[in-house]
Amino acid sequence: MKNNFLERLGAWSGLIWFMLFGLGWVLSEWIPPISPDMTAVEVAEVYKEHHYQLLLGGVLMMLSAFFVGPVTALIVLLMNKIEKRMGALSIVMIVTGATSAVNICLSGVFYAAAAFRPERSPEVVQGLMDFGMLFFFGGISAFIGFFGWTAYASLVLDDRNNPVIPRWFGYLCLWTTIVLIPDVLVFFFKTGPFAWDGIIGFWIPLALFIITFTASPFALKKSVENHL
Amino acid sequence: MNITNSEQHREARIPGEAEFWIFIMGDLIIFSVLFIAFMYNRSLNLELFNHSQAQLNQVYGLINTLVLLTSSWCVAYGLLAARFKKTEVAARFYRFAFLCGLVFCGVKFLEYSEKIYSEVNIVDNVFYLYYFALTGVHLLHVTVGLICLSVMIKRCQNTKSLQEDDIQFLEGGGVYWHMVDILWIFLFFIIYLING
Fold it and tell me: Residue B54 burial by CB count (10 A; 0-12/13-18/19+): exposed, middle or buried?
């Protein structure tokens, strides 16, 4: 039997990423996250009070980026199967996965950097937190690619009668893509539904992430068994 | 999973792909959440919502409702024509539906720009935040629907005889477009009309 440990890990690593990142997020007590409407002094106060919690949270989120690799590799392999060669889509997916990992890693680093020196001036603390939040919520160009290209591969290119990626998962990815697009508006709002603690900025994407990432091992496991 | 999709569908008689309905149901849930959020905020700021609503131009809303209803009708008849193998008639119906979608977007941009350049303060106003949130997310769906419609038109033009999966695609696209239409009717009702 050939060793396909990495492929099988790939099927689970999306969920593992999400759980690690989520753990960091919960540890930071960011459900919902620190409001973008808070003043610098208030933000710095929170960072002073929960110094180690926030530091550890940021580091966990940074580490979670490790698990973006295997899931990207698996999806690229599946795309290879769909394209029947190393086509443009597979290459695009490699780039997208790599940028997503950087995106996740860097937002974690910014969160940790904000907590790094509790004695520094409030504006800097808030600035670094802003950087992390805007990077993660607003920097969707890689994330929408991750879901969007998977949906494209599954729904447009894949064989309908013997799909490499289950079609329901393709639709789930399409749904996630569409719901993530309005997240770009976190740059323009500090309160209300579009802000990063609002219903469109935070709550709905959170719900969708929970659904999509929980479902992903079940979809991808099947693909590994049947097609790789 | 050895039964082919088409056989399943013939038995169950679900328009479009069965898996596609995950997407439709999911989208409906999200809009329901947004509607509830709107109504909840409305109950908190009843006076502001009623006052701000009076500043909206109901005519734009009404025009868009009629435009979308017309396009929905076209999509339904397009599918009927496609089922009877009249692909050119179907393409014509879909093209008209596409045009209606464009008109919808045009009216929306007109309405948005009128609001943005007006004297009305739309920045610190919960009503307008939700107005832009709900109609904006809906507009995004219309845009996706337009892309979908253009693929539907192309499929009708490309093949003389439509295959089973072409019909299924047309059904799915139709379902999506009807959903966009129904959501707009809800939006029109709760944003433009409901009062007191």
Answer: exposed
* Peptide linkage before A32 cis (omega within 30 of 0): yes
Dist CA A58 CA A114 (whole Å):
9
pLDDT at A3: 82
CA distance A74 to A10: 5
The helix (run of H) or strand (run of E) holding residue A95 is: helix A88-116
CA angle B51, B179, B146 (to 5 degrees): 95
| Residue B17, domain member (yes or no) | no
Residues present in chain A in total: 228
pLDDT of residue A127 exceeding 80, the answer is yes
Residue B146 lies in a domain: yes
Looking at residue B160, its pLDDT comes to 67
Give me the residue from B5, B129, B140 closest to A160, CB to CB.
B5
Q: How many domains does chain B have?
A: 1
Report if pTM > 0.95: no
pLDDT of B1 reads 43
The pLDDT confidence band at residue A1, using thresholds 50, 70 and 90, is low
Residue B180, domain extent: 57-193
Contact between B4 and A161 using a beta-carbon 8 Å cutoff: yes
CB atoms within 10 A of CB A65: 21
Which domain CATH number covers B98?
A: 1.20.120.80
Residue A71: other Cβ atoms inside 10 A = 27
A102 touches A21 (CB < 8 A):
no
Mutate to test the interface with B, among A175, A209, A225, A226 (most CBs of B within 10 A): A175
When pLDDT is cut at 50, 70 and 90, the band that residue B78 belongs to is very high
CB B136 within 8 A of CB B153: no
Contact indicator for A126, A69 with CB cutoff of 8 Å: no
CB contact under 8 A, A181 and B23: no
Residue B163 included in any domain = yes
